[in-house]
Amino acid sequence: MGLFDFFNKKEEKPSRGEVTVRNLQEGDFIDYFLKSWQVKEIYEYDWGNNFYAKEYKLDSGDEVRYLYVADEDELELSISEKVNIMSIDKNLKHDIVEDDEPMKRIEYKGETYYLSSENLGHCRDWEDDPNYDDSWSKVVNWEFLDQTEKKFIGIDRWGEYEIEASVGVYIEEFEISNIIPVAN
Length: 184
Fold this sequence. Notes:
There is one protein chain. The protein has helices at residues 5-8, 85-88, 92-99, and strands at 29-32, 35-46, 52-59, 64-71, 75-83, 105-108, 111-125, 137-145, 151-158, 162-171, 176-180. By secondary structure, it is mostly beta strands. The protein has one domain (29-180).
């Protein structure tokens, strides 16, 4: 090492180790269902009792999906897409605002989904400062499962009137392949 090499030395970032669905970062790529997806945004959920989960917004160029990763006792993965709440039930949003809870059963595209759980927690954009308390938003999540318990409808309530819906499926880790980190 020469005298001037010291001044030209680049500082290296610590290695992420093996990149899996548990530690994806913005810009990383994954393959799912014969398509490549890029991680565009990351959200963190705090469901209480030291139970945290991450959600990755994935973009394939012509579609957007959300990969939800929870790893409490065992790894739980799901892929979902946002849908217009009116496409599920035209009265659903009104019922939630008026009654503070959804129906117990939902019909969607010819299938019946049953209310399975209600979760209260907080969510933040992964890029927000974790020490800044106002970066967390309160969320109430209701999950409806079909008879096979493989498909679900998620209803999220953010504040009094903002209500979102998503439909999705539970998946296995092997269904995500070819993880390519953009930066290590």
